[in-house]
Structures are given as C-alpha cells and as structure tokens.
Amino acid sequence: MTNQYSSRKIQTIVIGGGQAGLAVGYHLAKRGISFQILDASRRIGDAWRNRWDSLRLFNPARYAGLPGLPFPARGDVFPTKDEVADYLESYAQHFHLPVQTGVKVDRLSKEGDGYVVSAGSQQFESNNVVVAMANYQVPRLPTFAPELDPGIVQMHSHEYRNPSQLRDGGVLIVGVGNSGADIGIEVARTHPTWMSGKETGHVPFRIESALWRFFLVRLLRFFGHHVLTVNTPLGRKLGPQLISRAAPLVRVKPQDLIDAGIERVSRVVGVQNGRPLLEGGRSLEVRNIIWCTGYHPGFSWIDLPIFGENGEPLHERGVVNRAPGMYFVGLHFLYSMTSATLLGIGRDAERVAKAIESRSLATRSQTPSVSARLKLPAAKLRSELMGADTSNGDAQIATVS
Ligand SMILES: Cc1cc2nc3c(=O)[nH]c(=O)nc-3n(C[C@H](O)[C@H](O)[C@H](O)COP(=O)(O)OP(=O)(O)OC[C@H]3O[C@@H](n4cnc5c(N)ncnc54)[C@H](O)[C@@H]3O)c2cc1C
Predict the structure, then answer these.
(1) What is the per-residue pLDDT across 262-301, written as a single tens digit (0 to 9) for each?
(2) 104 lines ligand 1 (CB under 6 A)
(3) What is the CA radius of gyration of the chain?
(4) Which of 79, 33, 37 is nearest to 54 (CA)?
(5) Does the chain have fewer CB atoms within 10 Å around its N or its C terminus?
(6) Residues 159 and 285 in one domain
(7) In this structure, what CATH number is given to the domain that contains residue 286?
(8) Is 274 part of any domain?
C-alpha cells in the first residue's frame, strides 16, 4: 500500500447509506459487529430527497418502515419522498449508526484475504464489504441524445424536479414506466405533452382506494415477499422478466394519460434534423425531452471478477460465493420481488448480517489465539470476537436500543 493514502482497518464496510445500508447497519450493530457505513451523498436520505418534488411512495407508511423503527405516520398514508429522506436520517441517528457521508468509493479491490476500499485519498481495509444500494445508480440515456438540437432542454428523470425546469412549448416524455407516467401527468398540466413507448401493464385499481390501502397492499406484499422469490418456481420464472422490464404502472392508469391530454406516440429511434425521430418516420418538434429510460447498475468501480455476462453481480441471496466476505443488499430481485423496496429490504439485510456474523465467528475460531480462549463463557467470547478489531481504529458501534 502506498503512503499517500491514509488507511484504516475496519472489520466490515458497508458502501451505501440509503435504506439498504442502514438496514444492514441495524442488523450488524444488533450482533455487535464492528462496521462503518460510507456514503457518497452530502446527507443521509439524499437519494430520496433528490427525486422529483411531487413523488410519493406507492406503499403506505405501514410498509415504509425499516427494522426496529416504524415509519412516523398514520399507517394508511403515502409518505412524500422528503418524509422518507428525513425518516432515513432520523433512523441513523436513532440507532447511532456510524455513517460517514461525502465519501464516494471509487475502487473496491481485493488484497490477500481482505478488501481495499478506496475513496479519493482515503483507503480502508476490511474483511467484509457490503455493497448496499439499488442496482440503478447511473441514468441510462440513448447514444443519440447528444445529436439533438442544443435548443431542446434535455434531462433524465433523475434530474427532473418540477415543470419550472422546462421551456415553454412541447415536452416529449420517453419511457412509460412509473417515473414517465408520474412526470407525464404533471407536465401535461402546463405543457403540450407526448409520451413515447408502451407500458408493461398496470395495477388494475386505484392505490388511493381503501380497498388497496387496507387490504390489497397486504395481499400484494405477501405475494411479492413470500411467493415471488428465488426459492419458488413462479419466482424463478417471473424474476428475470421483472428484472429486465419496467414495472407495471402502479399509481397512474393508461386512461389517466389520455385524460390528461397526453398524446401517445411510438418509440424514439434516433434524430432527424436535430429533432427526435419516432419509429415509423415521424419527427416531433418539441422544446423539452425528459428521458424516463431507467438506469445502469453503475458498479464499474468494483474491480472484482464477480459479474456475470449480463453485467449483474453473481450472488446467492446477496452472498458472493466467489469472493468470500463480499455481499450485496438492495439489488432488484436479490431474493424476492420486494428486495429493492422498503417492503423487503429488512429481511435481506438481516440475512447478510447473519452471514457476516457466521463468517467472522468461523474465521476467528480458526486462529490459535482465539481457540485458546474457548473456555470463556459463550456470550463473552462472542462479544470479544466481534469487537476484536476496535484497537485498529474501527468506528465506535453504538448498541441498538
Ligand atoms: C423514482 C423511484 C420511486 C420509487 N418508489 C418506491 C416506493 O414507492 N416504494 C418503495 O419501497 N421503493 C420505491 N423505489 C425503490 C427503492 O426503494 C429506492 O430506489 C431506494 O432509494 C433504494 O434504496 P437503496 O438504499 O437500495 O439505494 P439508494 O437509495 O440508491 O441509495 C444508495 C446510496 O449509496 C450511495 N452510493 C452510491 N454509489 C456509491 C459509492 N460508489 N460510494 C459511496 N456511496 C455510494 C448513494 O449516495 C446513496 O445514498 C423507488 C425508486 C425510484 C427510482
């Protein structure tokens, strides 16, 4: 290791301090495992805070809480994105989770039996690394986007906040997933709006209805959490489709788009005279384009041979078998349909924390110095094993109350 870096040794590093990282942190702390969460953003909750202003959860508050702390709202209301962000921040404070913000990890590599996590001039060495984030970090844009007339305002849904960012004149929304539909309905109130592409189906009832909020959401959660999993034939059949396609529309219905005055058009396939060209040869004269075209995983900073041919990490319920000590939490369909949502993150986080606990106990019990202490009472031995690294400058881990 070169001297220009300040290097710290930490038993377990969690990269990502959104809901996935915090849920992992909760379960690690509960087990007395020494860890540090690193997050690139300025403030805990920023992933939610930086989404468009009118965004609300599609699941009611009853299903928006992380392990150990219910969401602070009536169970049947749909929290706003800022309320989710604030809840995540208060969750970290409540459990004294060690989160270091403003640390963007730019390389994760292996050295000997451990891992090296680099973030600018900072370097961390660790036995275990959890990459805790949704596998959609980098906005996906078509390659021809830069060829469009520079007078057209272009943005990805990731950058869209509200219609004040748009020029007067027409708006083309590209992509009819939940982001495209939500944003389309909003901008159609003030701008002539076209929407390109096709939805992959829709939930056939209003999620604001009492039927959804009190009954159907429970049914759907049960189905998504316990039936559509990697352990069931139905889950294994539908899982790959759920990963590769946009989710069905949840809040907005196709008829709502028509009622809002949105003109549905075919796919955008290229550029003609600086304008977006549609399949079939029509080009559109619009002043604004919002790309609601999804995301890339954004894992190029992980310098480890743990990815499959499709570029997705290879893992078994978050445990990367070909790189012992490496874990993922938050990925789409990591275990079930709810894995990348607030509804399912707690279960996956707990499983990964348990795997880290088992690994730590197994690794330590193989060393002579530890086996010599096996006469200690079980609880004392366990706490000694888990806290053994603290003399190396590990983060102080608060006990979960
Ligand atoms: C528009 C939209 C609406 C959604 N609505 C719902 C909903 O209603 N209900 C629901 O349950 N789910 C919803 N989801 C899905 C999911 O709950 C969110 O995407 C959620 O933000 C995922 O949380 P996460 O912690 O897994 O990942 P993220 O929220 O993406 O957090 C990842 C964190 O990791 C950090 N990070 C990333 N790369 C690095 C790096 N290299 N180094 C250090 N830190 C890094 C980021 O700064 C970020 O804070 C929605 C998703 C989107 C995009």
Answers:
(1) 999 999 999 999 999 999 999 999 999 999 999 999 999 9
(2) yes
(3) 23
(4) 79
(5) C
(6) yes
(7) 3.50.50.60
(8) yes
